[in-house]
Design goal:
The complex is a heterodimer of chains A (about 550) and B (about 350). Chain A is mostly helical. Chain A has helices spanning about 5-25, 30-45, 50-70, 75-110, 130-145, 150-160, 160-165, 175-180, 190-210, 215-225, 230-260, 280-285, 290-310, 320, 325-345, 350-375, 385-410, 415-425, 435-445, 450-455, 470-485, 485-490, 515-530, and strands spanning about 435, 460. Chain A has a two-stranded parallel ribbon. The two termini of chain A are about 15 Å apart. In chain A, about 40% of the residues are buried. In chain B, strands 2-1-3-4-5 form a 5-stranded parallel sheet, with helices on both faces. A two-stranded parallel ribbon of chain B has the order 6-7. In chain B, strand 6, helix 14 (about 300-315) and strand 7 form a beta-alpha-beta unit. Chain B has about 350 residues and is an alpha/beta fold. Chain B has helices at about 1-35, 45-55, 70-75, 80-85, 100-110, 140-145, 150-155, 160-175, 200-205, 210-215, 220-235, 245-250, 255-275, 300-315; strands at about 65-70, 90, 115-120, 240, 275-280, 285, 325. The chains are: A mainly alpha (about 550), B alpha/beta (about 350). The interface of A and B includes residues 209, 466 and 522 of A.
Chain lengths: ~550, ~350
Amino acid sequence: MVFASYSFLFIFLPIALVGYYLAAKVGTNYAIGWLVLASLVFYGVWNPAFVILLVCSIGFNFAVGRALLAPERENDTKSRHRLLFLGVAGNLLPLIFFKYLGPMLAYARSISLVSPEFDFKVILPLGISFFTFTQIGYLVECDHGRGRDLDLIRYAAFVTFFPHLIAGPIYHIREIGPQLLNPDSCRLRFSNLSVGTSFFIIGLAKKVLLADPLAEVVKIGFAHPGDFQLFSTWLYALAYSLQLYFDFSGYSDMAIGLASMFGIRFPINFNSPYKSRNIIDFWQRWHMTLTRYLTLLLYNPLAMYFSRRRRLAGLGVSQRDYQTLSGFGSLVVIPLFFTMTLCGIWHGAGFQFLIFGLMHGVYLTINHTWRTFGPKAAGKNRGRLAEAGVVVSSVGLTYLSVLAAQVMFRASSASAALQMLGGMIGLHGIDAFPIPSTVMKVLQHLGPIHTFLTQTHHILAVPSEDSTPAPASLALRFFIVWALPNSQTIMAKFSPTLTAVKPDTVRWLLWQPTVRWALALGLLLALSLMSLQQTKVFLYFQF
Amino acid sequence: MKNDHEHSFRRNLLICLGTALGICAAVELTCVSLGVAPLFTASPAINEKMRFLREHPPGHTPIGVISGASIALNDIDSDLLEDDEGRPFVNLGANGVSVPTSEQFYQQLAALYPVREVIFAASPIEMRDAYRAEVHVPTSVFRRYVLGRMTMAEEFTYRDIPGLISYVKNWHEYHSRTSGSSLAFTKTGAVPLEVSVDAAGRRTWNGEAVFDLTTDCVHCMDDLAQFCRDVRGAGLPFTVVVGPIWPEVTERLPRIRAIVANRRAQLRAVAQQCNATLFDITDYATLDDPCFANSLHLNAQGMSAMTAQFVRFRRGQSIPKGMALPCGGSRVARESNSGAEKAPGSQASSE
């Protein structure tokens, strides 16, 4: 089921909410049980058969978690680690089976490693990466002694809670567990409903009004990556970048809003990533819970492993040792590349995803290299204008780097992505810069300037076609991205998230339970409801 | 104090939801009272065509269906055919639609009204595997809409803001004829494009756009063959009509010339395989430059000239080969009475 659909908004959500708060009057356990039931229905609407997989996965992980928390294993680290290894393997096997086996066999067929008749088609269960990661995280926390208080029904709610089930955020048991145990979470509060609804509406509008209208033109651009010249290719790439941004940002807002309606607070997952001044900053703002997860479960253990090895070899791991080539290589670069490669592969089985991960590995390495070995005193005595120039150029450079990787991320194959990137540097020729006809009419009054511009073929009036992204609509979206505060900041005074956010914007842009805000968001909701017809599924659903 | 706080949140929530639902209801009521049709696809042309069907429902007499993309609208004057043969025709052509959608559209109509034959207008270039922003209309929805049986709530689910804006724009352009490419349906749903050389986009004329279109047909010939088999399987005649391409494009662009030749051969093969009738205008005649609205489409005069030959072909009359059909005469007489348009040579009478 998609959040942005009539069936979800007018049938599922009201029933789930009313049932939850009615059940809460009987008892907290009933409310949590209702939540699990509603979440399984939410999941089962897509494909009822996979509810069994989800339920089995929950049962398996809960059993392993209990075993990890058993008193007899408290001091038996080896036994716990063996069990943890088994638990993680038990989670990864279905993930590999469903997500990677088909593409790997297809590749093996293409290079004649297996017979062409050996075909293997499998449907990827919705959200499998997310609920697998969530549960691996749970097992690791159990290994650290957390999650002891959670019974099966609350654990099931922790995994299946529908606002996060399909595409995150990937949260930890220490964040959600105490909330599920607290009976106060199930108490009906209009503040939760009002704040949650407002957050949800902002997310819905981002998805329906800003992301989805770009979907079709993006599809055209990426279906024929070699057919377009410089400016057209840029428009398609920028359109995708904005579609992905508003799609994921919208989803994250909707998830936070929905959770708030049920009295649960989520961690922030998306924090204006295109405002990042460098790639390290970008990954701390984009899919934040995935970054946190990968850092905790991949990067840190690997960095610690290399630290131990260095210590055993008699080498240091101090700050100064990080600034040596071997220290930097083993403590930063290797763990980084390993993490980003897996991050790329997590998104999909194609080579383009691997390259996407490696590109970010390279970006992050360059960023860390600059931080470690670059000039330390740079920028201390800069004037305001110079500082602004540095900010603009660093945000611009970061965005362009991200954009190049996103082309790889979206393309159907690595070669298609290279064709697209070739078009962006003019390898397919340079077309006229598209100018809306209305603007051209104004330019006609400029006489010789207009003649110069058109005759030298620098600009060309384009009729508004639905097959090319309109530059003005992209510009409007960039304005929203770069000039306006994000949802968390707008809602900062009543933040329904686990993270405190500074109300760092002008007062009239800060949400309050006033009539003015109610009318504004009511209008936004009406516009969104009237645009649901062309709604597409969330881009992150495929992962 | 806490209750006051909760009260303000409750008031906020109620006003917000009430505003949204109120606006939606007001929009729907306004649309219903003004007769604004819901929009089912991102293609304004298909929406307008469905609206046309709702407003001009075929009767009980079996109809001849003209099918295809914009070529169906611009190469075949279905009004002329109807008047000449004294039998009803419906032109289902809509700009940019794919071959599978053309068939779906036909199947949906055939489920409601008796059909006696299908004429598919094919272009060697503009045949698509998929419309650029296609959204299929479920048959049940098509049926309820065309028969005027949808409820307000159902109609509301097919409204959207871009669609309403598009509706206003199209209504203005289609019906007030303010655009160089304005469209106004005739009594059978045909609509000759009138694009002057000045008004046409530069890309359209220099062949770049034509080149883009050639990449959109990977399996459209298979789709056409399937369409033909389905119609023939239902015991109905199927005719493939192949229109001309502006000669300058094929002369100047050898690659396009090769594609056109190849596609014409494929169309011939498809017609032969499914036992359909083929009428390729280039077998008989060439059309003067003034017959073309742009590289691909004929204007009203061109359409009339080509259809006149098609009428002779259908009558079984001999058509001398190698003639040049002129179009450079007086401008097409237009009557915007009830949105109807008469092509020269047509005996069509406005409704």
